[in-house]
Every structure is written in structure tokens, then in C-alpha cells.
Write a structure and sequence with these properties.
The protein contains 4 helices and no strands. With 83 residues, it is mainly α. Helix 1 packs antiparallel against helix 4. The chain is elongated, with a radius of gyration of 13 Å.
Length: 83
């Protein structure tokens, strides 16, 4: 399944679940740097001709999923409101 989610929705999700660490960056990804980190990684991948320049998205969402799965109560409602 493929879904499109705007950067502002992802930022709202990070506000609720907190930052995640991904192996391709040395920086924790959060609501403040999500978009800039993705842009930097994709551009760097394109510069070297990588066919998988957007792998950072897979890494971020793989790190987010366990956090989302463990939410409950008010946090769950915050995520639904962001969508």
C-alpha cells in the first residue's frame, strides 16, 4: 500500500511520539528536522546516482511504527486528529 502524507502531518506525529533514530543519519529525526533531513539525504543519494535515494523514508517509518503501535489514550487521539 502506498499513502501520501504531508510533512506537516508527519511533524504532528513526531510531536506526539517523540524523535526516532535512523542508521543513515547521526541526528535524531523529530518534528523540527524531519523535512530538512529527508531533503539532504535524498539530494545526497541523487548526487551519487543511488537508485534508492529515498530509503531514509523507509527507515524513519520503520522506527515510527513501534512507537505508534504502543500509543494509547490521549496520544492515540492526538495522532488521529493530526490525520
Amino acid at each position: 500500500m502506498i499513502a501520501a502524507i504531508s510533512p506537516s502531518v508527519v511533524a504532528d506525529i513526531f510531536k506526539t511520539v517523540g524523535p526516532v533514530n535512523v542508521s543513515s543519519t547521526k541526528t535524531a529525526i523529530d518534528e523540527h528536522n524531519f523535512l530538512s533531513e529527508i531533503q539532504a539525504e535524498v539530494q545526497a543519494g541523487q548526487d551519487v546516482g543511488s537508485v534508492n535515494a529515498k530509503n531514509i523514508l523507509d527507515e524513519i517509518f520503520a522506527a515510527l511504527m513501534p512507537k505508534l503501535a504502543s500509543l494509547g489514550g490521549d496520544s492515540e487521539q492526538e495522532i488521529l486528529s493530526a490525520l
